[in-house]
Write a structure and sequence with these properties.
With about 325 residues, the chain is α+β, with helices and mostly antiparallel strands. The termini are far apart. About 0% of the residues have low confidence. The structure holds zinc ion (3 copies).
Length: about 325
């Protein structure tokens, strides 16, 4: 089991998951394999190479989306959040939780950008279902859904997949966003952002009646995008099916535009939703974070990211793409 350790300088938790070092790149094929997709554990026909599926979507025997436990989980097992003090500055807690892989297409090639309309609906429905499942486990406070695309973004396997990590605490990034909602006068900082960005117009990448995609005013990386469902809802799992489908389609269309503009770049998709059972103010959303530049010493030292493409320019480029 992994271990959480508190950095008393920053108040941030770090997960020490040494077992993950033994993974052949999550599930990756041997490097000498000449045609890696023939050895891919996520391809149809290789279902026995992963733990049994927790959920499959599509006709039986012919899955379209598949959720499996991660073979090398960063968080694992049940158990309440329990911080142990080993000394004045050594604080640790067991890394309990859930770590799942979401195989979101049977097609080895391609990515979220290539999914058809039916598939975008199934993928987001699978995410919602897993979130609901995680919420039923008392020790899971928050579930982070991510997609890492490309090696520079941390993907260890090419087959299109995401991950769901149910963890026993509310992580720092989410806590900071929650404070962004609670510290301000307006009822919802993202509803206001949506209205103000649409009013300004020039950072909007695409919009329909249910969702808006912007290169946010405060974009920290080139071509960063924020996907905002219009309907105010704190929890992804409580969103209306039509809002989920539109948001998933907007993820696809944003990624496709980015691909046409800058090629098949590495990126992270980050789904932010309120902690399970939380009644705090929040508005669920998705971040698209392209890995076009790498953070250097200044960013590591200060937390201040330097973005070399203004979001106004990025949005204009993406709209034309
Ligand atoms: Zn595959
Ligand atoms: Zn809102
Ligand atoms: Zn966020």
């Amino acid at each position: 089991m992994s271990q959480l350790r508190l950095n008393p300088l920053t108040g941030r938790w770090v997960a020490i998951a040494a077992e993950r070092a033994s993974r052949p790149g999550d599930f990756a094929p041997p490097l000498d394999s000449p045609r890696p997709h023939l050895r891919c554990p996520f391809c149809p026909g290789h279902e026995e190479e992963t733990p049994p599926a927790l959920e499959t979507y599509g006709r039986s025997g012919d899955w379209l989306v598949r959720v499996v436990p991660n073979l090398y989980p960063a968080f694992e097992g049940k158990g309440e959040w329990a911080v142990e003090d080993l000394g004045p500055v050594f604080h640790q807690a067991p890394g309990t939780g859930i770590h799942e892989v979401l195989v979101f297409s049977p097609d080895h090639r391609g990515s979220w950008a290539d999914l058809d309309d039916k598939q975008v609906g199934l993928v987001i429905a699978a995410i919602r279902d897993r979130m609901e499942d995680h919420a039923e486990q008392a020790s899971i406070r928050y579930t982070q859904t991510i997609v890492n695309h490309g090696r520079e973004a941390g993907a260890s396997l090419d087959h299109p997949h995401g991950q769901l990590l149910g963890i026993p605490f509310v992580p720092d990034e989410l806590q900071a966003e929650l404070e962004g909602f609670s510290a301000r006068d307006e009822p919802c900082v993202l509803c206001t952002t949506l209205a103000e960005e649409e009013d300004a117009g020039h950072r909007v990448v695409l919009a329909d009646e249910r969702v808006t995609v912007v290169c946010p005013f405060w974009s920290a990386t080139p071509y960063e995008m924020l996907i905002l469902p219009r309907h105010h809802e704190a929890h992804l799992a409580h969103a209306a099916p039509a809002d989920l489908v539109s948001t998933s389609r907007a993820v696809r269309d944003s990624l496709a535009a980015m691909g046409r503009l800058v090629g098949d770049v590495a990126y992270n998709l980050v789904f932010h939703t309120a902690p399970h059972h939380s009644t705090d103010r929040f508005h669920w959303h998705v971040h698209v974070l392209p890995r076009l530049t790498s953070a250097a010493g200044f960013e590591a030292g200060t937390g201040v990211l330097i973005n070399i493409v203004a979001p106004e320019q990025a949005a204009s480029d993406l709209r034309r793409a």
